[in-house]
Amino acid sequence: MRFRLIGIVLLALLGATLGACGRGAERGGVEDVLKEGWRAYSTGDFDFAIQKFESVGEAPGATPEQHFSALLGLATSYHLRSNPDLEQARLWYERLGELKTGDAQRQSLLGLGRVDLAEGKSGAGQTNLVRLIQDFPDSVEANEAVVHVADSLFKPTGKDSEPGQFSLAGGAAVERGLNMLEERLRAYPHNTLATTMHLMLAGKYIELQQFEKAVGHLLAAEEEGIAGVMLQSVTLWRIARIADLELKDYDLAERYYAKYAEEFPRTTLYYRATKSLERVRALKKEGGA
Amino acid sequence: MSDTGRTWAKLKRYPALLLLVLVYVISCLVVVGNVIRGAGGAPGEEKKKVLRFAHWQLEPGIRSAMDELIADYQEVHPDIEVRQILIPEEGYFRWVNTQLIGRTAPDMIECGSGGTVGWALWPKFYARYFMPLDRYVDQPNPYNKGTEFEDTPWRKTYFDEMEGGYDDSLQSYYRVPLSAFTVRLYYNKDMIEEVWGPSFPQTYEGFIELCEELERYGEEQGKKLVPIAGSGYNFRQFFNAFRTAFTADYQDRLDRDFDGTVSRAESAGPLYSGAVGMTEPPIRANFELVRELSAYFPQGYTSLDRDEAVFLFLQGHSAMITTGSWDYKSLGVQSEFTIGVTDIPLPSKDNPRYGQYVAGPQTEAGLEGGFPMGITKISGNADLALDFLQYAASLRKNEELNRAMYWLPVIKGAEPREDLRPFAPHIEGYSPSIEYANPGAELAYDQTSLLYLSGKISYEEFAKDLLAAYRRDGPVGMDEYFKNNEQTLDQQMRSAALRRAAIAGAEGAAPVLTGDSETQYRRIMEAYVAQLGTRNNEVRIWAENVRLLERSTP
Fold first, then answer.
1. Cβ contacts of B537 on chain A, cutoff 8 Å
2. pLDDT band (50, 70, 90) for residue A25
3. A chain contacts of residue B488, beta-carbon cutoff 8 Å
C-alpha cells in the first residue's frame, strides 16, 4: 500500500516536472523557431541560427513559406558567417532554388552568384547574377545583382605571394561594369538601389578622373534621395569640391558649398565649406569684373 | 510492528535507492518552484522593478549627480529602483566582457572603453548583446513633453543628431549619449598671474616665453618647476593640435576621392613612396615645434601616466596640463589654487619659423556625444531601461544632470554651467590630413619619433629611419589594413541580407528588425558601395605609389 502511494507521488512529480518543462517547448512553434533563428543570425550566433533553421526542416507542420525562410536562413548563415562555409551555403542555396516560388528562385540565384564570386569563380558568378537580372528584371534582387557584378568587375585583386602588391581591374572590365550600372539606371531609373548605383558610378568616375560624369551621378543620387545622413553630407561636399577644384564650375561649387554649410553646420568640414564659399564668391566676382 | 515500521525496515535495505528517490524529489521540487517563480517574476519584483547600470566615471561628483537624477526618476516612478554599478576604468572593459559573455550584465552599460582592443570589439558586442534603438530614435522623447521638442524625433534633439549613438559599421543606433567632452589646456591661474600677468598668452610664441618665465621662477623659488605636466597620455593631445595646424593644407593634395577626409591609405601611400616626404617644411616644422615644446615637459614624460601628470599639476610642480572637460570638477576639488582653462596656443602667422605653415586650429564641429549608455538584450526590463535613458536625455533633466556633473549637456538648448564656457566646442578649424603612423609601421613610428623628441637623434636621422620603417613594414601592414576593412564590407552584407530576407517575406526575419526594412536596406547598400569605392580608391593609390617607388629605385 505504502509503496503504491510512494509510486503515485513520484509519478505525480514526474508529471508536474514534464509539464513544467513542456511549457517552454509549447511556446516555440515553427514561427518562433524561425524568429529565434533570424535573431541569432542578427547577433552573430550563427551556430545557433543554423541549429534553429535546421530544426524547421524536420518540423512536420511547417508551411512552404516557413521552409523558404528556413532554407534562406541556412544558406545565408553558412554564407555570411565570420568563417563562411561556402560549400554548405551553395548546397542550401541550391535547395532553396528547388522551391518553385519567385522569391526562392531569386534569392537562390543571387546567393549562388555571390558564392561563386566569393570562391573566386568570377565568370560563373557573373553568369548566375546576369541570369537573375534577365529572368527577374523588376526585382530588388536584380538590382543587387547589378551592384555585385559591377563590383566584381571593378575589384582590385591582391597577390598572396607578394604582400602589398595588387592588380587593378583592367579597362575593359571597368567599362563593362560602368555600362551595366548605366544600363540598369536607364531601364529602371528609380529602382530601389538607384541611389546606390549612382554613388557607385560616381566613385568609379572619380577614380578614373572623369569628373563631369562623376558630378552628374552625384547630383542624380542627391535628387533620388540618400538614406544615410553621413553619406548625404559627403555627397554635397564632393559635388562642391569637384566643381570647385576640377571643373572650375564656380556656380555649382558656390551652390553646394552654401548648401553644405546650411545643412551640416556640425561637421568637421563646415568651416572649410564656409571658407571655400568665400573664396569661390571672390573668384566669381573677380571673373565677372 | 506497524505497517509504517515494516515499510521503513524494507526500505532501509536499499539505502542507495532511498538516496536516489530523495535527490529526485528535491530536483522535482526545485524545477516546479522555479517554474512558479518564473511565472510570478523574480524575488522582490512584486514590490519594485530594479534597473542596474554600470559605468566607469569615478570622478568626484558624478555618482552623486547620477543619484540625484535617479531620485528624481524614482519620484516619478515609485515602482522602479535604479542602481549604479561603478567599476574602475582600468578593469572596466574586462568586466563588461565577462558580464556580457556570462549573460549576467546589468540592464544598461556605458560603452566604449578598452583602447584598441575595445575599439575593435565594441561593434561585435553591440551586434550580439545590445538592443538596437532605431525604432525609438525617430519617435519623440516622451519626457520632452511641454518643451520645444515635444514633437521632435528624439535623435533630432541632440546637438550632434545622436551621431554619438550611431554605429557606422552596423548602421544602427545602439547608444544613448548623456554628455559631451572637449580637451583644453588647464593652468594654475594663481601661479601664472604671479609669473606672467593676468592674461594667458594667446600665441605659441607667448606660450614659450611663459614656459621660460616659469622655469626661471622655479629656480628663484629654489624648486624644480616643470612648466607643462606632460605624460604619455596627454602628450598626444598636444601633438594632435599641432598636427592639425601643420597638415590641414595637405587635404587637397591627398584626398583623392574628394570625400573630405584623408584616409590612412591616402596618407600612407605617398609617405611610403616618398611622394610626400618627411622633410617637407610643414611636416618638419610640425615635429620640430613639438620637440621644442617637449623641453618644457617633465624628463621621461612619455613613461609617465595620466595620474602622475595630474599629481604634478595638483602639487604645484607644474603650471599647466592638457586634459578633457571630464576632469574639470575633479581638478577643481583637489587643487588648492584657482584653475584657468584655455586653448592650446598656435604659432601666429608672423612667426618666422612656423607661421607660414599654420592653417588654423583643430575643429570640434564634428564632436559627438559621449558617456554613452547601451541597453543589454538580456535585460528583463529593456523598456524601463529605455524609459530611464530617455528621462536622462530629456531637455530639462540632461541640463540638470550635466550641470551637477560639471559636464557639457548633449541636448540642444540645454545650458551648461557658466564656468564650462571655455569648453564649448570650436566650430572654426580643420582636421589633420596626415597620419604618420602608417599601417604596419605604428610601433616603429612610436619608437623613432620618441627618440627624436627626446633629442637622441637628429631630424634627418628620424626621417630616414621612419622612411626605412615605412618601406620595410608597409606592404604587410597595408595588406592587413585592407583585409580588416573587408570585414566592414562583410558586416554590411550580413545586415543587408537580413533586410533583404525581411523584404522577401522570410518568416521571422522582419520581427527581429527595428525600423523599416526597405529604408534600412537602401541605407546599408549605399554605405556598402561607398565603402567599396573607398577600398578601390585606396588600393589604387597604394598600387600607384608602389609603382612610383619601383620606378624611382634603380
1. 203, 206-207
2. very low
3. none
Please report residues of B whose CB lies closer than 8 A to that of A238.
Answer: 258-260
For chain B, how are helix, strand and coil distributed in percent, rounded to 5?
A: 55, 10, 35
Tell me how close the Cα of A287 comes to any Cα of chain B, in angstroms: 23
- Residue B346, pLDDT > 80, answer yes
Asked whether the beta carbons of residue A163 and residue B431 sit closer than 8 angstroms, the reply is no
CB contacts of B159 in chain A (<8 Å) are 266
Chain A residue closest to B432 (CA)?
A268
Smallest CA–CA distance from A63 into chain B, residue: B507
Same domain, B144 and B191: no
**Which of the four pLDDT bands, split at 50, 70 and 90, describes residue B303?**
confident
Q: Which of residues 353-382 of B touch A (CB under 8 A)?
A: 360, 363, 365-367, 377
ipTM: 0.90
**Based on the domain organization, do B170 and B299 belong to the same domain?**
no
The residue with cell 564590407 is B489
Residue B461 inside a domain? The answer is: no
The CATH number linked to B351 is 3.40.190.10
B220 with B349, same domain: the answer is: yes
Are A103 and B430 an interchain contact pair (Cβ–Cβ within 8 Å)?
Answer: no
Q: Are residues B187 and B176 in the same domain?
A: no
B208-219 burial, b for 16+ CB within 10 Å, e for fewer? bebbebbbebbe
- Best interface-test mutation with A: which of B2, B266, B476, B529 has the largest number of A CBs within 10 A? B529
Measured between alpha carbons, how far is residue B11 from residues A2, A11, B14 in Å?
Answer: 11, 19, 5
The residue ranking higher by pLDDT, A229 or B363, is B363
Q: Between chains, do B512 and A42 touch, taking CB under 8 Å as contact? A: yes
> From B525, which residue of chain A is nearest by alpha-carbon distance?
A196
Interface test with A, best of B27, B126, B172, B526 (most A CBs within 10 A): B526
The pLDDT of residue A11 is: 63
Is there a single domain that holds both residue B270 and residue B409? no
**Confidence bin at A159 (pLDDT 50/70/90):** confident
Q: Give CA–CA dist B518/B500, Å, rounded.
A: 8
Please state the domain count of chain B. Answer: 3
Supply the pTM of this predicted model.
Answer: 0.84
Tell me which residue in B29, B258, B529 faces A196 most closely, judged by beta carbons.
B529
* Residues A186 and A134: beta-carbon distance below 8 Å: no
Q: Are B174 and B127 part of one and the same domain?
A: yes
State the DSSP code for B426: P
Could you report the per-residue pLDDT of B395-436, keeping only the tens digit for each? 999 999 999 999 999 999 999 999 999 999 999 999 999 999
- What are the chain B neighbours of A40 within 8 Å (beta carbons)? none
pLDDT at B74: 95
**Within-domain flag for B174:** yes
Chain B (496-515) residues lying within 8 Å, Cβ to Cβ, of chain A: 496-498, 500-501, 503-509, 511-513
> For the stretch A172-193, what's the b/e string if a residue is b when 16 or more beta carbons lie within 10 angstroms of its beta carbon?
ebbebbbebbeebbeebeebbb
pLDDT at B238: 83
Question: DSSP character for A245?
Answer: I
Half-sphere exposure of B398 (CA within 13 A, CB side): 30
- If asked whether residues B231 and B349 sit together in one domain, one would say yes
Last residue of a domain, which of B361, B383, B400?
Answer: B361
pLDDT, tens digit, for every residue of B48-86? Answer: 899 999 999 888 789 999 999 999 999 999 999 999 999
Partners of A43 on chain B (C-beta within 8 Å) are: 127-129, 377
Q: Which domain-ending residue is among B342, B361, B380?
A: B361
Give the minimum alpha-carbon distance from A52 to chain B in angstroms, rounded to a whole number.
Answer: 12
- A-B C-beta contacts closer than 8 Å: 242
Residue B463 belongs to a domain: no
> What is the Cα–Cα distance from A189 to A204, expressed in whole angstroms?
19
Residue B311 structural domain? 183-361
Which of A260, A209, A145 lies closest to B496, judged by CA?
A: A145
The answer to whether residue B30 is domain-embedded is: no
